[in-house]
């Protein structure tokens, strides 16, 4: 297979991307298409790996500057690295696209170049959250700030496929994020989505609160992109607050610092759990092509993690599986409405 | 002053409430009205404190059972402890009401018995969150799952008064919880509220994400009750997940347990920060009377914390301050609309 990496996405582009492309090509013994401004990339690639044969630069002369509004800039600069990279999926030259650039920019370019899977109204940014007992899939975590209830049903279907294929869950338990476990609790969107989710042939376990999510009682958690983003960001922020306070407290005395050294492995486990660098990248499910978004702050290590996630998605035929599940849903809905 | 305590609210009522009432009366050398089923309470109070003179039972013969839907049950049982207790505020026999009962039940009874401060469309459950550098006020954390933008303006006004009076902040920085710091980010509610908040005479600092909230960059954070509840519950859940994992890791070997002992003070600080028992209770701001809601799981210690919060609110004339601020807003709005 051939993976496509946007060379111009991360905060410190293109150096982390160049490094990550080289390592990924080496890791899988496969070609990697590195997309970006060739004049900038070619000499750097040569220096980084003179013997390189697998990383191929695809020229995208336009550069989206960090200060520019991403969507507006993408419109004015059609030969930007996201547009060009996504085009390679369309032509079949590559099977998955990874970018550490602006999420809105990736979404816009992905919708314009690849479009949505037939039957999906909105693509969803899909995260893997650590839980007490493993991981769970949460979507949407930021692509759509306002949703209709039927969007959430599509999120549930796509999320279930993702959990099945990536987490190996045979009948993923789908929870609807709410402010109480009891049916009937929630805002209007959640109340309406609840009724739809009961009848969609998924393993719907009802409403879940954050407590159940982190306890690992659901494999898939469905929510609108605004709420999902708050859930994501508050989890990260509390994790950071706690570790900052602990570090501060533990540098207070020699005894404490000695104690801290002894418990360091425990901290490393928590840190790893919470570390976006480990995650690498999140998929934009519902796009008609495999598209992954990484953190702007990604270093080479994080980008390699991202490329591994993309590689696995191709390996497990994720796109086909989602297209099939959504198509089945469409067929079912049509059958239901003719009765 | 006289505080009013719902004797029938907590999961293990009325024993924690009886204990808390006795301790509170002793602490402040003031009377406490303990509201609930007299037949149940009188003998227990006598046993707990034979010499008691300050805790006075006010009979409320109806009991709201835990399995009953709170609002529906409150309608059928008008002489329940919440209704009777809140009535005592209305008659002036008490100045603040505390209950560890169901939040929906308290809200319903408070609206029915005391009503809203003129000019407040929706009362807001208002929490005090720990931050890196102190605390911040967050509302609404669960009273209103769906909000209109003008509700959020009222939350901002009430929250500012609360931050000023309770946190001692002279010009509280008000942030609007969003999924990005840039103006224009957010769902439709947030985008609309943003414009209103810019022109309301508060120290509005714009959108904030969870990161800024926990870093202490705002004194007041405004959001709808559904999102606020997700923020609250996910913070608690992540805190619990981290401490559970750390405990588990640190009981893994003798060395680690020794290390854990040494760093225990650091953990206690974090635990205290995150502990609802320390908080005690949260006010329902916007009700025409001082009403506080505690955790169902509250023990006597937590209930005493709750009573202290209520006591302080009376001391600092919180209700007057909120009424004045809201009235000023009403006057300003009328003045603006006649131009």
TrEMBL record, chains A, B:
Pathway: Lipid metabolism; phospholipid metabolism. It holds the Pfam family FA_synthesis. Its EC number is 2.3.1.274. The gene is plsX. InterPro entries: FA_synthesis (IPR003664), Phospholipid_synth_PlsX-like (IPR012281). It comes from the Bacteria. GO terms for cellular component: cytoplasm. It is an enzyme of class 2 (transferase). It comes from Longilinea arvoryzae. GO terms for molecular function: phosphate:acyl-[acyl carrier protein] acyltransferase activity. It catalyses: a fatty acyl-[ACP] + phosphate = an acyl phosphate + holo-[ACP]. Keywords: Acyltransferase, Cytoplasm, Lipid biosynthesis, Lipid metabolism, Phospholipid biosynthesis, Phospholipid metabolism, Transferase. This is Phosphate acyltransferase. Catalyzes the reversible formation of acyl-phosphate (acyl-PO(4)) from acyl-[acyl-carrier-protein] (acyl-ACP). This enzyme utilizes acyl-ACP as fatty acyl donor, but not acyl-CoA. It is found in: Cytoplasm. Belongs to the PlsX family. One of its GO terms (biological process) is fatty acid biosynthetic process. Homodimer. Probably interacts with PlsY.
